[in-house]
Amino acid sequence: MQKVSLPTLFLVMGVSGCGKTTVGQKLAEELHIPFLDADDFHGEANRAKMANGIPLTDEDRIPWMQRIHEEVRRHFAAGESVVLACSALRESYRSILCAGTNCIIIWLDPREEILARRLAERTGHFMPASLLASQLETLEAPKNAIRIRGDLEIDEILREIKSHISPTPEDQPPSSSDPAN
Questions:
Q1: What is the pLDDT of residues 107-123, one digit of tens each?
Q2: Are 179 and 140 contacting, i.e. CB atoms less than 8 angstroms apart?
Q3: How far apart are CA 105 and CA 164, in angstroms?
Q4: 70 vs 167, which has greater pLDDT?
Q5: Where does the source fall among the domains of life (predicted)?
Q6: Per-residue pLDDT averaged across 11-21, rounded?
Q7: Is residue 176 a part of any domain in this protein?
Q8: Is the Cβ–Cβ distance between 10 and 106 less than 8 Å?
Q9: Cα(57)–Cα(16) distance, rounded to whole angstroms?
Q10: Among 80, 98, 150, 153, which has the minimal tally of Cβ within 10 Å of its Cβ?
């Protein structure tokens, strides 16, 4: 079990279609902390490349990850933990995102056929299903991560994640019976 102290970065990672955004939003809601989606930090050039089926290079990714890390640090400076949904496929990428933070990595890892189905059904996203093979090839299994089968129901995934983290008292929202409220 990983002890949580403030502030903490909960990095929900995995390839496209694994459920990062859905799980990350729900986890942030349950933990009463902000949610960041790494997709929101992509510049237009990166979005255009991916929309045209062109995988990003490290040269494309580094400034994007640095922007994300700066936003995480802003939340930390305000004393806030944060949930970040980000592919973070390589160890070097996770190192940039987690640098100088208390980081808990949550790896959503559904089977490839589930990923392919989800991507085929997804509409309105700049990441095409044709890049799944490239992402799977790039993926480096994270060390010291909470590995979750991404094909579980959302409530099961959240229970599994929370069973691996032990929040400190100051991480808990005040209860309605708390006399200080």
A1: 998 776 777 676 666 55
A2: no
A3: 11
A4: 70
A5: Bacteria
A6: 88
A7: no
A8: yes
A9: 16
A10: 153
Domain count, the chain: 1
178 part of a folded domain? no
What is the widest separation between alpha-carbon atoms in the chain?
A: 57
Q: For residue 111, tell me if it sits in a domain.
A: yes
How many whole angstroms separate alpha carbon 18 and alpha carbon 11? 14
Q: What is the DSSP string of 75-136?
A: HHHTT--EEEE----SHHHHHHHHTTSEEEEEEE---HHHHHHHHHH--S-SS-GGGHHHHH
- Boundaries of domain holding 8: 2-168
CATH number for the domain spanning 15: value is: 3.40.50.300
Q: Hey, how many other C-beta atoms are within 10 angstroms of the C-beta on 158?
A: 18
Size of the chain, expressed as the number of residues it contains? 181
Say yes or no to pLDDT of 180 above 70.
no
Residue 133 vs residue 154, higher pLDDT: 154
Angle between helices 44-51 and 58-77 (to 10 degrees): 130
What is the predicted pLDDT for the residue at 40? 92
What amino acid is encoded at 152 in this protein?
A: L
Determine contact, residues 132/82, Cβ cutoff 8 Å: no
52: which residues sit within 8 A by CB, 6+ positions away? none
- For the segment 119-143, the average pLDDT, to the nearest whole number, is 66
Q: Is residue 143 a part of any domain in this protein?
A: yes
Distance, CA of 128 to CA of 53 (rounded, Å): 6
| Coil, helix or strand at residue 165 | strand
